[in-house]
Design brief:
The chain is mainly beta. The protein has a single domain, classed as Beta Barrel (Porin). It contains six helices and 18 strands. The strands form two sheets. Strands 1-2-3-4-5-6-7-9-10-12-13-14-15-16-17-18 form a 16-stranded antiparallel beta barrel. Strands 8-11 form a two-stranded parallel sheet. The two termini are 41 Å apart. The relative contact order is 0.15.
Length: 400
């Protein structure tokens, strides 16, 4: 676990020193769903929106590349309070102008601060970005590639579970039973380049052949620091068993080849001290039955996936003016991720999937809900003699 030791060492270095921030679970910005739930305590109907409009330009190699302008996301937020305890929350997302998705849609019944019962389409609590992806509460135009290629953000499925806070112990928890990734639906959905990403069902007539478990515990007892530990365990979903005679051992074994057992663990940390912020994330996922799966489907899914990043940022605006609504924040992030960290069949290894990114950028917050961003990405891999892919990105983000 060399990479885990490296990440923890980096976090200790970043987070060393005195900590004087507020010792509550609200030290960091809430995400959209929690904000809606909080506002719903005051209003019967709550509405909001966040959006991202981006410009991406690849350059630096021997050929020309056209830039890309994209109304990347526009997400409408709604909450309705039925009673003082029961609230419905939903996010309706329009991607690239023409694609419409439901990002969240769940009923939350608050028994007390320690216990909420949730049912519906839920975000899987893995890492940071999958739950906290609003453009005004993260650095960079694009989301970290660890979260895109491994987690995979935005990951949401239909399920039922509980959540709550034990403030005396500075702990928050989430525990859900959900449907899993769809690994096979006439063809293999998993692949080496982005692992599970094509298997996200997103609540669209989802297939369920076995339930999966998702859980997370956050600790916020050290002022200015929030640490999360997440786990996800279960099997991928498949349609291969449909209409099959369970006494036919050959067919049952063939169908078993379409199922992957997944055990994913995540460690994340966020730190804030005055104008300095830092965050880190480590994700490791182990897959069983990949040899049979790849042979049957012709795919190249890794037996293990690993990724981490460390990011630091500093707000210089207080040195320029006393207007606390503004923020001028440069940041830097390093990412290391390999979607084929281990392979059953060595002949399927693709060095292009062993990647290292260096990202630097700047964000100017006109107000807490409106930001202009720019960053530069160097995207590298282990292919011999390959050149880095250089990307320049600009964008605006809003959230209200």
């Amino acid at each position: 676990m060399h990479y885990l030791k490296l990440l923890i060492t980096g976090i200790v270095i970043l987070f060393s020193g005195s900590m004087y921030s507020q010792n509550t679970d609200t030290t960091f910005s809430q995400n959209a769903a929690n904000t809606l739930l909080t506002n719903a305590e005051k209003n019967r109907v709550t509405m909001g929106m966040y959006a991202e409009i981006d410009y991406n330009q690849q350059f630096g190699d021997s050929v020309k590349h056209a830039g890309n302008l994209d109304a990347h996301r526009l997400v409408l937020l709604f909450a309705y309070k039925f009673t003082n305890r029961a609230t419905f929350v939903t996010e309706i997302e329009v991607e690239h102008v023409s694609e419409i998705y439901i990002e969240q849609a769940f009923l939350n019944v608050k028994v007390n601060d320690k216990l909420n019962v949730k049912g519906g389409m839920l975000l899987i609590p893995m890492g940071i970005i999958n739950e906290y992806h609003e453009p005004t509460i993260r650095n960079g135009v694009e989301r970290p590639n660890v979260d895109v290629s491994i987690v995979p953000t935005t990951w949401r499925e239909i399920g039922l579970g509980i959540s709550g806070n034990f403030n005396n112990a500075s702990l928050a928890y989430q525990l859900y039973i959900v449907n899993g990734f769809l690994g096979y639906n006439g063809e293999g959905k998993f692949r080496g380049s982005d692992a599970y990403r094509k298997g996200r069902q997103k609540g669209a007539e989802s297939v369920i052949s076995s339930p999966n478990l998702s859980a997370k515990i956050d600790y916020y007892g050290i002022p200015g620091l929030k640490i999360g530990f997440a786990g996800y365990f279960g099997k991928s979903q498949t349609t291969a068993f449909n209409g099959m005679n369970p006494d036919d051992n050959y067919l049952m074994e063939t169908a078993d080849s379409t199922v992957i057992s997944i055990a994913m663990l995540g460690l994340d940390a966020r730190y804030r001290y005055k104008n300095f912020t830092a965050r880190g994330e480590f994700i490791y996922s182990s897959n069983k039955n990949t040899g049979a799966y790849n042979q049957f489907t012709g795919r190249d899914l890794g037996e293990a996936l690993l990724g981490f990043y460390i990011e630091a940022a500093y707000d210089f605006w207080p040195m320029i003016a006393n207007n606390t609504n503004h923020s001028l924040t440069p940041f830097a992030r390093i990412e290391k991720y390999n979607t084929q960290q281990k392979m059953t069949d060595q002949s399927l290894i693709n060095s292009a999937y062993d990647r290292f990114d260096l990202v630097t950028g700047l964000g100017f917050w006109i107000s807490p809900g409106a930001v202009i961003k720019a960053d530069y990405q160097m995207l590298m891999n282990k292919v011999p003699n390959s050149n880095a892919v250089n990307m320049f990105n600009m964008g605006i983000g809003i959230w209200f």
